[in-house]
Amino acid sequence: MRIRSIASHLRPYFMLARRRTTVNHAFAAAVAPSDTYDEATVFEAMLVLGLDPIGDLDCAYCGEAADTWDHIFATVQNSRFSGHGHRLGNLLPCCKPCNSKKGNKPWQTHIRSLPMNDEVRAEHERQIGAFVARYSVIERTVVDTPDHERLEAIRLQVLALLAEGDEVAARIRKAAVTY
To answer: Residue 36: is it exposed, middle or buried by C-beta count within 10 angstroms (0-12/13-18/19+)?
Structure first.
């Protein structure tokens, strides 16, 4: 860590600026469909990825020990549900560094950026491609129902309340007395 890293802590915190993505994700993820856990299907899916479903899983991207699950396709796109939910075909075992580095990029872009042998990379791409082809599902969303309209209104209210909270907090900071 470098001394300048403290700079990000030495400034006011803004709820909306830091949480807009979190709020948008929460609303989109809430409408995203999910699969029911079926051990036999998950076991089979891990085999398609070339992973040992009995032992500890490896990252499908780089081969290191997996400690999280990556949504292959982001659940949120342009602040809305993308059509890719919490489904088996949208979840890969992943190490935290790969999950962080990949972000919302396409999985192919991420895997091609990893420092690995070309043959190993090609095998990972083949396995993930086969997994996606076999298990991936995209949902067609209907966004003009009264429930969708109401959910969108609630999302906008939450964002407006966070913005108002930032204004009130700024007034409180300004009025603070230093001892």
So the answer is: exposed
Q: At what angle do helices 15-31 and 146-175 cross, to 10 degrees?
A: 160
Which strand (E) or helix (H) includes residue 80? strand 80-81
φ, ψ for residue 36, nearest 5 deg: -85, 135
Distance CA 24, CA 65 (A): 30
Beta-carbon neighbour count of residue 79 at 10 Å?
14
| CB proximity list for 154: less than 8 A, separation 6 or greater | 27
Establish how many alpha carbons lie within 13 A of residue 51's alpha carbon, considering only the half-sphere containing its beta carbon. Answer: 27
pLDDT in tens, 153-178: 999 999 999 999 999 999 998 888 76
Q: How many CA atoms lie within 13 A of 167 on its CB side?
A: 6
Report which of 76, 70, 69 is spatially closest to residue 31, judged by C-alpha positions.
Answer: 76
pTM flag (> 0.85): no
**Per-residue pLDDT tens over the stretch 80-117:** 777 788 889 999 999 999 999 998 899 999 999 999 99
Residue listed under structure tokens 């997996």: 66
